[in-house]
User: What shape does this take?
Amino acid sequence: MGARGALVPDAAVQAADVVVRAVDVHKRFGRLEVLKGVDLEVPRGAVVCIIGPSGSGKSTFLRCVNHLEKIDAGRIEVNGRLIGYRERNGKLVEDSEKSIARQRAEIGIVFQRFNLFPHMTALENIIEAPVHVRGVPRRDAVVGAEALLERVGLADKRDVYPGKLSGGQQQRVAIARALAMNPTLMLFDEATSALDPEMIGEVLDVMKVLAREGMTMIVVTHEMGFAREAADRVAMMDDGRIVEEGRPEEFFVAPKEERTRQFLSKILA
Amino acid sequence: MLAAVDWHVVWERLFHPDEIFLRALLTTVYIAVAAQILGVVLGLLAALMRMSHLAPLRWLSGFYVLIFRGTPLLVQIFFVYYGVNLLFGFALIPTTLDFGLFTMDGAVFAGILALGLNEGAYMREIIRAGIDAIDRGQMEAARSLGMRHGLAMRRIVLPQAARVIVPPLGNEFNAMIKNTSLVFTIGVYEMFSDAEIHYSQTFQPVEFFGAVAIWYLVLTSVWTVIQAAIERKLAASERADELTLWERIVESWTPVQAWARGAR
Assistant: This one.
């Protein structure tokens, strides 16, 4: 909590306090270059919202942060360690599956389409990774999962299969599932875009509480209200680059870039 | 015309089968089950090999399907039974196999091997289609939680693929039950051999082949019922509206139980 008040998002931040450092990240799908040099730093405890038109590369960048996508140039460090790659003689080579998996376990991601495991109940979804990846005894994992379900307001849905839950409920279970691994970083990939309007609020509320508790978050979103209220920094992405970044109060009131102004006027109209 | 049929013989074959026949029926069933299990195992291996990033494994998988799906089953059965020992220069298919608890005739073993090898080639495609049918997001979600590929496959993808695989697998097993009759040609005493021997002694083809056809029908019908039960069970958890009768009963009692525990 205190970290948010004392947020200093510039050179004064010590290296150890930076959770994500992306430097000149490039990514192409075949001949299409989706990321054209993205730089981003996320200090511990900060909430960074990435906004921008669809196709600007925001989701792709987010997926690079836990190496669901490979990158073609540049580097991404999470908690001070390269993700997905190892440095050998000054060159980056793909890391082993084992160490990528270990790093991913520290990073929670919430997908647009929830991606809950349909053959498992809400509780089973949440304890799956703690039990089978971390080797937590099942009984302890269940206690933790019940607490998480309580936190996202779904204690009564413990034994319900995802197919019987509403979109908003599924997404809250998905958040609980990611939190069960005690991540040091949470990624949200348009977590509310697939939801009916009346369910968006319940998911955003959970995310706001998480932000208030000091979780480090990168949030790709179209919810400007959330960005304004919960973000420490807002980054505008367009055509594979971050074109503008700033505190929400400045960013929304007086955007510097013409591209940002255009986008905001369209989306806030 | 039908007067020529000795209905008494048919009746006896169906309702008072002798012990030899029952043993033949058991042989049919266990050849079918063993060969199907072998086929599923081989099919799963071949499907995983086909998705491997190692090219030789993919080639091997493709070669396997090419051979076993592209040649007649009967040829494969003869090849395995008569050819394999000569090909490898040692008794891969022995006269009898001693498993300690029971012994198995070499011809039965060869039959299971040939039927299983053949079945594996078809199962590979079915299993691969099942895996392909699972949304990519499932694998991504599993990997993002720190699971390695093998664990994610085993815990997340394959259990879901199983639901897709079960209906075509059921059809395969139905075909397998009937295909076991081909091992009669290498001297296995199963249901069809039994019918054929009685026919050759009595020249009553309608009675004996008719009766054995009905027995095959009984086996495939029993399987159809079992298959339907399995499919219902698999579907129950995913789609809320397709609960089994038992689950509905349990469900309807939940509020009563809650009340009994003191809930208001």
User: Anything to note?
Assistant: The two ends of chain A are 33 Å apart (CA to CA).
